[in-house]
Amino acid sequence: MSTLNNITEPAWGAIHPGEVIADALDSANLTMTEAAKRLHVSRQTLHDIVAGRRPVTSQMAFRLGRLFGNGPGLWLRMQVAHDLATLGPEMQAELSGIEPIAA
Question: What global pTM score does this model have?
Fold first, then answer.
């Protein structure tokens, strides 16, 4: 693992939670349309998350947690792991230009 001040980026790539959602929908024999209806979101919103173009927000995590019976924490932790794995390296140059304050 490498660190940039207090930010630790995982050495492994974290998958986007949308991939897990797609597998869970398949296992439950739910179509994207039916799942979107149950989640009270548009089909396009769910499709964008499954495709990895949108993050799982706190509100969506609550919905997914209710639908799959596992609570919102799992979905938020997956999103955070994905964000740390992908955004950390992308932002490294920008972050190196920020001078930390003394604690």
Answer: 0.81
